[in-house]
Each structure stands twice: as structure tokens, then as C-alpha cells.
Amino acid sequence: MADDKHEAIAGDDVGSAPTFFKEHEAFLKMLDTVAESASMAETWAQSSMPAEEERAIREMCAMLELYQEQPTCLDPYLERIVSRLMAVIEDYVQAYHDSNASDRKDSVSAARMNGVFELVYMLCKVRGYKVVLRFFPHSVANVEPVLATLWRHTADLGGSSWTARYVMLIWLSLLAMVPFDLESIDSGMANLPQLAPSTSTNGQASSESGTKALVDMWVELGRFYLRRPGCDMEGAAVMLAHLLSRKDTNTTLQPAFIAWATHEISDVASGYTGSASSSTSSSKKGLAIGSVLRINGALRVLCHLFLAMDSADTLRGQIGPLLDVLQSDAFEQHSVTRKLATKAAQRLALLVLPPLSVAKRSAARPSARVNLGAGANANSPAENSARSTIDESMDNESCASHDADLEISEEVETCLGALLQRLHDKDTIVRWSAAKGVGRITERLPRPLAQEIVSAVVGMLQEETLVLASGLVDVSMTSEFSWHGSLLCLAELSRRGLLTPLALREAIPWVLRGLTYEIQRGDYSVGSNVRDAACYVMWSFARVPDAAAKGLFAEMSTILATALVSVAAFDRESNVRRAASAAYQEHVGRHSAFPHGISVLQLADFFSVGNMRNAFVVASRKISEFAEYREPLLGHLCTVTIYHWDLKTRELAVEALRELAPLSPEFMASKLLPEVVASAGSPFLAVRHGAITALGIVAEVLAAQLWLDIDQTKLVLSVAENVPSRYTEDFGASLTLAALARFIGCLSRAGWDIGGDKARDRYFDYFAQALTMCPKPQSIAVDFTAFVDAYGITPDQHAKIVHQVQEGGPGSSREGFVLALGALRTRADFEMLCNLITEGVTVEIRRDAALALGQFSQRALETEQGDRMCDGDILAAVGAFLSGLHDRTVDNRGDVGSWVRQQCLCSLQHLFAVDSRMLACVCGDRDLALRLLGRILHAATEKIDRLRASAGRLLESFLYGWRDMHARGTDRLDVDAAVERWIEELRVFIPSGHQGDSRDMDSMGINWVDSESAYGQLVYALSVSEESLRRLLFEGFVVAGSAEPMGKFAVNAVAAYAETLPVADNGLGPGWTVDGIVAELTRLLLTDKQTSRLINPALIVSDQLIEQGALLAASPKMWIPLYRAVQRVAFKLRAPQRLMLCVKLYGSLSLVSSEVARLVGESLLAHIGHPIPKIRQVAADQLYTMLCINEVVADIDEECEVSLGEIERLLSETEWMQDTDSIKASRGRLAELTRQVLRDKSAPR
After folding, report:
1. Cβ proximity of 653 and 637 under 8 Å
2. First-to-last C-alpha distance (Å) of the chain
3. 535 near 564, Cβ under 8 Å?
4. Highest mean pLDDT: which of 396-405, 1013-1022, 1129-1138?
5. Measuring CA to CA, which residue among 882, 774, 863, 864 is closest to residue 819?
6. Where are the beta strands (DSSP E) in 65-216?
7. What is the distance between the alpha carbons of residues 448 and 442, in angstroms, rounded to a whole number?
8. What is the DSSP secondary structure assignment for residue 195, as one 8-state letter?
9. For residues 885 and 883, what is the distance between their CA atoms, to the nearest angstrom?
């Protein structure tokens, strides 16, 4: 058991499904508690359960809900649980019945057991009522008490629980099968109340039940609940089906009840038809909810009744009216009603048909010996095949003799026609029910008629399809509902062994077409359900028992296998990919005919194909190593996936093509390339974009092979030349231009000979248009960089780029050309980028300038030519990035300046990693290194996780990349001694981690993404000796401390750090003391009053640190300057938010000393007269708090105690939110009394 628990815990860690009821010990313990509490008869008179019992039941229900997907885990304990609960319910029901029969109605409450009933219902919900019902008590003595109890609960619907009624309904369905005549157990129950009025019966209450027979009451109760929504209807249908299928009721009550159900449906249907004929608008309105419930109840009970009946003998003339109402137009607007009608029709047909013969049953479901072979004692495969053929011929002869004697009635044909029509229904639940019905009925039909139905279903797939001259099937005009229903029906027929080899040969091509069925409708597509159903058909093919069919599958194994693998790897929907993988697994497990089945299945299992990128790029690449799958996968990519309507899917398809094309270059170049080139000029945007992008990838990865054939070279280069101008100017031009830019970039990286200046100018024009029109020009800039490196640009083209940057047009076009500057090499471009980081018009331009400057600097650092960056350029670039770290732009999108700051951090970190000479130059300039290190430390306290992580990685590169530079000893400049000292000091507090992966828990570095962990470790860097570094880092903590929800982590970190510091200056600097922190907060409050970036956070953090007691140990002399700073901030302040922060800080400052408390009292009295009511209210609250807890009033005399009481009364009773005239008298009296209480005792009066 210990091992089992360990495995279960390990499974939970990876999110796997439970394998056993691991909470069984706690559950059974609570079960005993609930059973003991509920079985106490003295508590049954209470109207509610005890609180402890209610809490336990709630916890038990929560435990059960965890097993909704794995309910069989409960089976080992289910009998014990249900038996224990039903024993309590059985005693309660008997006592409730006895108390009401003896006129002691108050002795047992109807609501006492609601919790136990709810627990039993939860078991039925999770495990299914059919399984739970096995453990219900079924004694004859329970019939009348349960029926009477349910009757009384029904009479008082408001005082009972629906879960209790449902449990008693399914309990009665079990008791209805007692093996005794119901008249013999009828004791004549009397004095039962009337049933509650029902809206479906026009408000008429039922008659007194005292004179009715037991079975009549039973039927009346069931009819009542058939008109109620929810589980009550389902429970009543099951109960009535079991009751009316008994031998003593099927001839007496069953015909009348079926007639009643038929009348219920026809009555509503006739009313609907009449309203529809009278008015078009009324037909659109549909049925009332009461009418829908009447139809659903009648249909539901008919479904259960037809299933429980042994034969159709008792129907006698009722089949015709039943078929008429089941095909009524009243069902069309309600999917559940149509589903119930479909199910009733199929079960009626099955009831009319004779049962399945033994011969047909064994033929459709062969034994394990036939499936697995003759076993270990078989002499040879030939003998097994011969034996199978002999058995099959014998079965065929037996089935033929049975079919010859079988006559199919017209009613069955009518039901079949209705079910085949329902295969086109718009709702999945209806189509699914119809498909199962067709399969079940066809299984009982003669073989010739069954083959006609199979042909009819296959014919549905051919409706409205167009076979093109190329042999492809155009399904754009078809209905996805019809295809989905037909494929589901084919799967059901296949599962039952009804598809002959001839039918399979006819159906397989259409099923393979269904695997790629997709029709675009605007900006979305339909067909994922069709593809899923096609995978289900393929799965069912693996279970066909016919030996000849298995031979057909072996013959077509490669076609089926490659089709399934293509869908499993390249379909857009994860459920379809997983369905294809499951179908492939079924074939591998049952036939072993698929090539490399086990190996491929390991690469494309359920979990591997669940992730889209992994399926497209990783799994497909590994599967393509098998020759049988290589070309089909490439063909699927180049004919289906790269033309997909979804942009993300096309991009992933192109990535997959990059991996697969080199594995089969001849097939790609000779067979697929011409088709893709032809699609590059398609009028459809998605097709054109996918084809051009794919051609670029092929041209890059297969450049060496394509250059060997001059025709293929011309074919590839013709793509960019033959694109019509309207495709680059009209709607969708941005996507076409992006594809062309990608295509040209691939040619550039592969080193293609594009044919001279004319082609280069054309390509540049494409880039200029793309940079102007594409909303996300970053990828365009990358391809443009490759183009410039490979072919260069003319001075005029250079001037055009500079002109676009300087003069400007639309915002997005300027951003694109700013990125293009990163591909150039002149000093003027470098200086322009440095200026744009701070002087750019928009934040997007400044961000893109930081990105382009990083790319420009990287190219200049890596080059070996004469334009290599000098030390002055390095310092200028770092200075530009440093200025970008000060960008604090805020607009309606939020802190958009963080985009610039993050890009500057990322560019710096990348440049430091590319060339250590840049870091060495920075470390050689003390002033620049000090400013840069301070800004990095400040950024490492940012509230934005990704920005803080970027700063943390850059900080680690700065601190430990310098050490690596020393270790290499190459390109090293003199490092300033002060910078070296600062770095050594910071290394003590900031350990080295695995750069680039801040989530690596094995790293000893700081987890920068986790704000609590990052702040808790970084705060100790405040101990660095350089004052400017301390100030910037402390400013960062103050700003972060004002943000929610991570602000509390920053404040807690500073508070914890303050506890480790001495109080007064010990000669190591003010940053090392608590006094130094108070002084720094004072300095921040005295900054420019026009901005709230530092003042508001300083007010918030000061208030929180004082409240936490982190600064109370500071010297008394430090508090007066802080108070004066707050007073200066609040002086003539018109910003209500900041003024309220000042008032709250006043309240906290009153805690530090009596002297400050007296000053604070005067300030609060001044703010109580503020024109803004909210400020007055907050000031009054703070003053009241100060007078209640401050020690300044601890030693007042008796006269002041009286004054203090009046002050508290004035503060608590005065409505400070009123206008100033209303509170003027109270304010004056309050000021007089407060000054009297707060005056200094040592001062003269």
C-alpha cells in the first residue's frame, strides 16, 4: 500500500489521472461520522442537519468530484459506501412513513436527510446510477414506505430536496422489479395528501389518493415527474419503464400508457402545426417551455420503455401513430427533443425486428481465437487461414438461411429513413444517436438490405462533391453536417462487421478525403468534427472481423498508415491529431501491418502530438527518417498544410518543411516544387502566402541541389518576378510582402545569384513596401539585413531609408525603416540610432532604435574589416542604451516606456555576451560604469517580471562576464579600481546563476522571475559602499513597494534588511543605518513636486515601514526632517490621492515620539478643515487613532480626560463628509480640545 501511495503521489506531480481511490481512508472515516450522526433518531425532527455533518458531506462530495473521469477507481469501496448510506436512508424512510401514517408528522422532518440524499446523488453522478443501484436495498417491505415518502415529498416540493426525490425515483425503479404481483403487496395506503399543482397540468391538483391502487399511484407519480425538468424526469422515465415492462402490467397498463405518451406528443405537435400555419412569426417563436417538457418527458419514457420491452406484441396498432408523432416538425427547434425522437425511433425499430441470431452475432463479434490465431499449438499460418475461411463459410451459410426467413416490415423502413435523414442534422448529439441507431438496425437486417444501407451512407459522402480533372475531390459545396453524420454511421457499421471488402474499397477513398476535410468560412473554418469522425472510422476499420477485409487492410497498409500519420503530425486541432494517433495505435495493436508501427507510434503517441509545435516540427522530423513516411509527409505539407487558412499553422508548416525537405531533396525538387511555384500566383491570399514562404525555405535548404539544374533555378527565381502588382498593393498586401521578404531573405542567406542590379532593385522595392505596410516589421528587418549583407544597396537606396526615418510617414512605416538602419554600416546611421533612442517621436520608434542599435553594434563588433567599432563608438552606444533605461513614458496602454527599457537591457546583455571588449570598455570608464550599474540595479527591482528578469541576466553578465574576461586575458583594457571594487562587493550579494534560464531551480543564482525571492536577496546589495548605487537601488525598491500585488514583497524585504542594520552612523555611511534609510526617504520626498513617480511611492513605503515597526528604532532627530518633508509635500497640494497618502503617513508618524505626535496633531487639525470631504474624513480617522493609542495622552490630568472623551465623541459622531459650514462649529471645538490635550507638559501655559 505504501508503494501504491508513492506511485499515486508521483502521478499527481505530472498531472496524470488517479489510478485508485487514494482518499478512501479519510472518506470512509467521514462516512462513519455522517452515518452515525444521521442515524440518530432523536435528530430526525430537526429541519436541517448538524453543521459538522454538513461540512463532512461537503468535503466528501468534493472528493468524489475528483473522480469524474476515472469513476471505476471507486468500485472497490462502492458497495460499502452505498450500503452504509442506504441503510440510514431506509431507516429514515420507514420512520417518516410510520410517523405520517400515525399522525405524528412533526416527529420526522422531510429535510433532515437532504445531505445524505445529496451524497448518494453525487455517487450516481460520478459512477452512474445503474452501477450504484446494484447496492440499493430491494425488499418488498420497502415499496410502500418509499412510494408514500416520495408522494409526500412531491406534495410539498418547496420543503424537499430534488436530490432526495431523484434518489427515491431510481430506488422505486429497482423496487418495481420485485418478483411478486403488485396487487398482493398493496395494503391500501390512505390519507396521502394531494400532489402539488403543476404548470403542465394547467394548475389542477391531483385527486385524493386514498382510494387508488398502488400501481395507479405509482403511474400517477411518474407522470407528474415526466413534466418536470432536470434529473426528476430521467428518474421517472427509468421508474416507469421498469414498472410497465413487468408481466403483470405490460398487458393492462402498458398500452394505455403508450397511448397517453403518444397523445402528449401529438397534442403539442398539433398545436405547434396550427400556430405555424396561421402565422410565420409564430412558427419562428417555437414551443413554450412547458410544451417542450411534455414532449421530452414522453419521449424519454418511451425510449426507456422500448428498451425494457421484450417484444412489440403489446403495441398492436400503436406503431403507426407512434411513427407519425416521432416525425413531427415540432421537434426541429430543440436538439434534445430531436435526439430523444431519434433514439425512440431506433429502439422502436429494434423492438419490431427479431433479435440478432447467434450466427450473426458470432460473425460480427468473433472469438478471441479468431482474432489472435489458433495460439501456440497452430501448425502454420496457412492452417489458421484455412480454418478461419471454413468457419466464415459456415457462418455465412447459417446467416443466409436466417436472412431468407426474415421479412422487414414497412415500419422498420420508415424508422430507417428517418434515421438516415437525421444523419444530416445540425446538432452533433442527434447525428451521433442516428448513426448508432442505423448501425444497430442494420446489424439485424438481411445482408442484401444491409449492403444497400452501406451504399446509401457512402453515397451521402458523394453528394454535392466535384471530382476535378486532376482526380482531386472538391468538397467546398458540401455540408459538414452530412459528412460528419455519414462518417459516424460508417464507423458504427464497420464496428459491427457490416462492411464487406467491396464496400470497404468504395468507402476508404472517401474516408481518406475526410481526414483532410476543411472548408473556410470567412475568418474561421469548419470540418474539425468531420476529420475527427474520419479518424474514428479508421479506428473502427482496425476492429473489422472479416478475414478478407483484414487482407484488404494489409494490402493498403502503407496508404492508411501514411494518411493517419500525416493527420497526427500536421492537423491544426489537437483532438484530431490525438484521434489519428489513437487510430494508428489500434491498427498497430490489432494487425501489425503498418510499416515500422511500434517505432512510429512511440514518436507520435497521444502526448507527443498534443503539443502543436512538437507534432509539426519534432515528431514529423523523426518519423520522416522512415522511408515509407517521408514522401507522404512532405506531400501533405506541400499540398495541404502550407496553404492552411490559419497563419500560425502555415508558419509551423514552413518550419516543418525546413526539417523535412533535406531528407528527400529529389522528390521535393522534381515533384512538389513545380506545384508550389504554380500556387505562388494564386488569387487566394493564404495559398499565395504559404507558397511563397515555403519556396523561400526550400530555396535556402536545397540551394546546392537546385543550382545543379538551370531550369529549377529559373523556376525559383521567377517567383518574385511574376507576382502581380495588385497583390502587393491591394487587400492582403502586407502578408504577400512579408512572404516575399522571407523569400528574398532565404535567397540571400543561401547565396543565390539573383541576376544583377535590376533584380536587386526590385527586391529592395519589395522590402521598402514591406517595411511600410507590415504591422510587425521585426522579421522583415532580419531578412533585409541578410539581403544587405549578400547584395548590398545603392547610395540612393540608402538615402531613401534615411529619408523615411527622418521625414516620417505613418508610425508603422517609420518603425520599419528604423529597424532597417540596423542593417547598414555607416557612422551616420550609428549616430542616428543613438539619437533615436532618446529623441524618437513614438515609444515604438525608440524601442526599435534600441533593437537596431544592438544589431548594428553586434555586426560592427564581429566584423574583421576596417569599420570595426572603436572604443569611442562602444561608449557612445552604451551611453545611448543608458539613456533609454530612463524612459518612463506612460499612456493609456500603461507603462509603454518599459518596452524601451527592456529592449535596451536585452541588447546590452547580448552585446556583452558577443564581445568581452565592450564590457571591458565600460569597466574602464568609472563614470559610465557607475551610471550603468546603478540603472541596472534599479531595473532589477522592476515590478514587471520580464523586465526584472532581463535586468537580472544583464547584471549577472556584468558581474561575472568581467571575471571571465580576466580569465581569458584577450582584448582586455585597464579596469578602473573603483569599478572592480564595486563588482567584488556586489558579487557577495548576487550569486552567479545559469544565465538565460531563470526558472532553473538547480541554479544557485537569484530567481529573477519570482518577485518575492528576487527582492529578498537583492535588498542586501544596499550594503554596497558606493552611495549613488545605494540610492538608485533604494529608489527601485521604493517604486516597486508602491505597486500591487508584489509591492508587499519589496517592503517586506526592506523591513527585514533594516532589522539587520545599526541605528546610528558607525562610520560606514548613512546607507548602512536605520537613520540612513529615514534620511533617504526624506530626500525622496523633497524631490520635484511636479511628478509622482518618486513622491507617491516614498509616502506609501514610509507609511508601511513605520507601521511594520522597521524604522521605529531610528534616532529621534531623524523624524522631524521627515515630518517637515511630508508637510512640504502637503502644502497647498491639490492632488487628492497624494494628499490622502500624506494624511495616512501623518498617522503613522504619530507613533514614533510624543514630539512628532504633537506636530502631527496640528497638521491633522488643519486637514480636517480641507474642502474635500474625503480628506476631512481620513484626517478625522487618523486623529482618532492617534489619540486612542499614542502615549502622548497617557499621563494627562483629570480635566484633559474629560476633554479627551468629548474629542472622541466629536470625531466619531460628526459627519465629516458634509459641507464645511455644517461642521464648522464641531471643527472649532475639536481644535480647542485637541490642543489642550496635546500641549507639552513641560512648556508654560
Report:
1. yes
2. 83
3. yes
4. 1013-1022
5. 774
6. none
7. 10
8. P
9. 5
